[in-house]
């Protein structure tokens, strides 16, 4: 107990500075420090915390208030989820053809001639299935999975390429030594091409507007404590270059999987 008191005394004597990752912890005697949790040792049941002066110490969660112990318990579950030894994560993607729109004839005027074209739109429905395999004895309870899909659109008569984000949520339970599946909603994307007829030339096909999924970010959290979560992405590097809801969502026909008129 003396070592614990000395630890709090040292930490409380150091001036803190702002850092969003740090929070206030209170011990059973009512003393408060600002620190963050760093790691958990499952063998001795202790956590390593880092004070906002970057000094670290390993302590038992039992020295903190009941409220902080509950927070630490949630954090430990997330730590174990992130630990590859406790959880195996697989992501599978699938797509299926959906209905094709009726062809639409258009006429466009160029500088020297007028050409006619027939527009075809093919829609695909894309889903991602996240498999979480709990290889340990921890009961994680209800798990929430938020996902943010990044869609790139090209085309539209020379307009700049555009990125969009679409989000969704799934909730399920993850018991010890079990497996849980989380399948995203079907996300429609489109590919519109035009069959062009030019006077005096053979007709040819040209992409008019094309959407593709560039990546998806998953956020796993405890359903009873959404503030405890971690993120990962597919492809793996994607989350390092992009952040959650970085772009606006699609609207109208495009959200349904058809290009704007």
Characterization of the model:
The structure is a single chain. The chain has 261 residues and is mainly beta. It folds into two domains: 2-64, SH3 type barrels (Roll); 87-255, no CATH class. It is 14% helix and 53% strand. It is built from four helices and 13 strands. Strands 5, 6, 7, 8, 9, 10, 11, 12 and 13 form a nine-stranded antiparallel beta sheet that branches. A four-stranded antiparallel beta sheet has the order 1-2-3-4. The chain starts with a helix and ends in a 6-residue tail after the last helix. The model is unreliable at 1-19 (pLDDT under 50).
Question: How is this structure best summarized?
Answer:
By secondary structure, the protein is mostly beta strands. Helix content is 14%, strand content 53%.
List the helices and strands and how they pair.
Blueprint: H1 2-12, E1 23-26, E2 32-41, E3 46-51, E4 56-59, H2 66-82, E5 87-100, E6 104-109, E7 114-134, E8 141-155, E9 162-174, E10 179-183, E11 187-197, E12 204-222, E13 225-234, H3 238-241, H4 252-255
Radius of gyration: 26 Å
Number of domains: 2
The fraction of residues assigned to DSSP E strands is over 45%
Number of strands: 13
State the helical fraction.
10-25%
Question: How far from one another are the termini?
Answer: 72 Å
Low-confidence stretches: 1-19
Shape: elongated
How would a textbook summarize the main sheet?
Answer: 9 strands, antiparallel
User: What's the mean pLDDT score?
Assistant: 85
Contiguous helical run count: 4
Structural class, by secondary structure, is: mainly beta
């Amino acid at each position: 107990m003396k070592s614990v008191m000395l630890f709090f005394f040292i930490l409380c004597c150091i001036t803190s500075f702002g850092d969003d990752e740090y929070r206030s912890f209170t011990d059973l005697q009512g003393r408060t420090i600002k620190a963050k949790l760093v790691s958990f040792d499952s063998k001795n049941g202790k956590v390593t915390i880092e004070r906002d002066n970057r000094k670290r110490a390993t302590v038992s969660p039992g020295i903190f208030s009941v409220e902080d112990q509950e927070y630490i318990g949630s954090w430990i579950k997330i730590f174990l989820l992130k630990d590859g030894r406790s959880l195996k994560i697989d992501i599978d993607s699938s797509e299926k053809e959906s209905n094709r729109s009726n062809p639409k004839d258009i006429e466009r005027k160029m500088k020297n001639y007028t050409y006619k074209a027939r527009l075809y739109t093919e829609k695909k429905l894309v889903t991602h299935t996240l498999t979480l395999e709990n290889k340990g004895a921890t009961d994680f309870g209800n798990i929430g999975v938020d996902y943010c899909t990044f869609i790139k659109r090209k085309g539209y008569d020379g307009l700049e390429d555009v990125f969009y984000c679409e989000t969704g949520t799934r909730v399920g339970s993850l018991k010890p030594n079990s497996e849980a599946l989380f399948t995203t909603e079907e996300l429609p994307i489109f590919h519109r091409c035009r069959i062009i007829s030019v006077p005096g030339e053979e007709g040819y096909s040209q992409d008019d507007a094309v959407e593709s999924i560039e990546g998806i970010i998953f956020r796993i959290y405890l359903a009873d404590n959404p503030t405890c979560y971690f993120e990962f992405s597919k492809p793996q590097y994607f989350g390092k270059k992009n952040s959650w809801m970085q772009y606006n969502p699609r609207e109208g026909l495009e959200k349904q999987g058809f290009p704007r008129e």
